[in-house]
Every structure is written in C-alpha cells, then in structure tokens.
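Subject: Sanity check before I submit

Could someone independently write out the structure tokens for this chain? I want to compare against mine line by line before I put it in a report. The sequence has 211 residues.
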Amino acid sequence: MGEATGLLSIIKSGGWLMIPIIASSIVALAVIGERFWSLNAKKILPEQLVPSIWKLYKADKLDKNRINSLAISSPLGAVLAAGLLNERHGREVMKESIEEAGRQAAHSLEKYLNTLGTIASITPLLGLLGTVIGMRDVFDAIEDGGVGNPTELAGGISKALITTAFGLTVAIPSLIFYRYFRGLVNDLVVRMEDEAVKMVEMMRGERDQIK
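---
Independent answer below. Compare away.
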C-alpha cells in the first residue's frame, strides 16, 4: 500500500505530462501483447500447408472453392492462393501475384507497429517537454524568492527528472519491440514468399516434388 502511495506521489510530482506518458505506456503494452499473440509463426506459416496443397493439386482436387478457403485460412494460405488462382496465366504472372499478396500480408502483419513506433518517438519528447517545464518552474522560483526556498526548487527539479525518466522508460522498450516486430514481419514475409515460389516451381516441374 505504501509503495503504491509512493508511486502515485511520484506521478503527481511529474505534473500533467505524466498523463500522456502513462497513456502511451498502456497503449504500448497492449500493442506488444497483441503482436506477440498475432505474430505466431505456426498461425502464419502452418507447417504442413504446402504438402497438403500439393497433394490436392496432384489428385486434381484443388478447385476454386478449396483455393478460396485456403486464402482465408492463414497469411501463407492467402499468398499460396494468389499464385494458384493465376496458374493458367503462366509462371511470371503467378510470381507477380504472389509478390503482391506478400505485400498485402506484410501490411496486415505490420498492424499497430506504426503506433508502437510513434510511442517510441514521442515519449522522450514528452519527457523533454516536462524537463523544460520543470526547469522553468525552477527559474520562476528563483526569480520570485531567490535560492532561499529549497522546497520550490526541489519541486521543479523533481518534475523535470520524473517526466524525463518516465518518458525514457516507456520509449526504450517500445523501440526495442518495434524493431523486433519489424524484423519478425520481414522474416515471415520472406518465408511465405519462399514457400509460395517453391509451390510454383514444383507445379512447373522446376523443383523436386514433395513426397
């Protein structure tokens, strides 16, 4: 109870700028949790999807309904379906369709990452603004009463330090996870396109078939 009261007191000492900083931290935590849940490789790249599609293709059971179902099953399924739907147009058109579907998948996988990147950028600036406001309060106190009132001086310095510290505390992990998720998305998209190209090459007899 005492620790909670102490933390609340620190937050109050930081002034009104603590409100957007704390709100940003809550949004950042929500985005990080959601992206960890959504960017699951097993959901995005089902391991047995390509072999199962290949078996259906060899058995001549890969009709339009199955391809449409494939397109909504997973991001990899959407990329594969884009190539399969354009099979009759030749290898190059299939690959172009796959690349376009891959870009669309990447856009979907990057959901909320811009928000996380924005938080990583603005929270240090909010902290810096708090520093400026806090130092202004210090100078105002000095101007009004000289350096003889340590309480007012300490309040201004405290506000400056608290907002800066909280801003960096939010910004640093936000930036780390933003970079991590961007790298993860790029890796997943490359793997999806590789799987789809592998399927195209097998269908065209340019790669050994899956047993």
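---
OP: Matches mine. For the report I'm noting this point. The longest helix spans residues 150-203.
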